[in-house]
Each structure stands twice: as structure tokens, then as C-alpha cells.
Amino acid sequence: MENFSFPFQQTSGITLPAHIQQLIEAANKATHFAYAPYSQFRVGAAALLADGSIKTGSNHENASYPAGICAERGLLSGINPLDKQQQILAMAVCYTSNTDNTTPLSPCGICRQTILEMQLAQDAPIAMYMCSPDGQVIYVEDAAHLLPFYFSSKNLKNK
Ligand code: THU
């Protein structure tokens, strides 16, 4: 058998560089724009772009549950990874909920697939900062670490 391993860091947010703390702050603020009447799980996502701007998104639920959308995908639909100025350097994801859970946010599988599509399209890694309500952060330098054996456009081509 072979093993898969990847580097990650778990840290308190206050130890991170100022521009990353700003990104996390933007994701935290975006939780206020979540529409989550069913789960009460309010997610905020923020992306730092190559032009220095920060874009945000939040989850929006629906009475027809599958029609809801995660914060990450809401955010990413407003960014074109083929435009150099809009390339994503880093993303932060934060949440608040009605539980006492303090596990850092773990993006769902569909969002990981979507983040990876963006990373492959822009041909540069997206650093991921996954945050807990009490200020803990898990950090990976490359979104591909979060989705081993991922499906991509390569699978659609002849060898
Ligand atoms: N959610 C996100 O917005 N992002 C994730 O990565 C995980 C889950 C949302 C979807 C739903 O509105 C709520 O959190 C509970 O699953």
C-alpha cells in the first residue's frame, strides 16, 4: 500500500500575517450575510485576489434544501480564474452556529471540487485558511491537499 500525506499547520489566527488576518476578518464578517434559517450554520468565505482585493460570499439556504448554496461556491461564482488580476492567492472560511462546536470549518466535497477547478484553471495554488469560531485556524498551502485523487478535465481527455 502507498500512503498519502500533506503538510498543514494548526495555529491561532493572531499569529498569522496581517493580510491573512484581514482575509479571515472579511470571512468572519461575511457570516452576517448568510441566510441559514434551516441549519443556523452561518458560513462566510473570503478570497484574496492577485489585484489585492478581497471578495466575500456566504451560504444561502432554501426551503427546497438542495437549492441552497455554500458560501465558497457563492463566492467563487463571482471570480474568473482566467483573468490574471482575479487569480485567487488565498481563501478563508469561517462560521458561527448554534452549537458549542469549535472544529475549524471543513469545506464540503462539492466545494473542494469547485475550489480545485479554479486552482487548475488559474494554474497557481490556492492557500486555504479554515477557521473556528474561537479563532483557531488550519492552514494548507495548496487546495489539492484537501482532495486527493480529484477528478479534473484531464480525466475527460484521451491519454
Ligand atoms: N456550508 C457551507 O456554506 N460551506 C461548507 O463548506 C459546508 C457547509 C453550508 C451549507 C448549509 O447552508 C450549511 O452550511 C449547513 O450544512
TrEMBL record:
Database matches in SUPFAM superfamilies: Cytidine deaminase-like
GO molecular function, one term: identical protein binding
Residue span, CMP/dCMP-type deaminase domain: 18-154
The keyword rRNA-binding belongs to this UniProt entry's keyword annotation: no
Cellular component terms per the entry's GO annotation: cytosol
UniProt KW keywords: Hydrolase, Metal-binding, Zinc
Family matches, as InterPro entries: APOBEC/CMP_deaminase_Zn-bd, CMP_dCMP_dom, Cyt/Deoxycyt_deaminase, Cytidine_deaminase-like
Keyword presence, Metal-binding: yes
Pfam family of the protein (one): dCMP_cyt_deam_1
GO biological process per UniProt: nucleobase-containing small molecule metabolic process; pyrimidine-containing compound metabolic process
Coiled-coil boundaries: none
Domain of life: Bacteria
Record-stated family: Belongs to the cytidine and deoxycytidylate deaminase family.
NCBIfam families linked to this entry: PRK05578.1
PANTHER family: CYTIDINE DEAMINASE (PTHR11644:SF2)
Name the record gives this protein: Cytidine deaminase
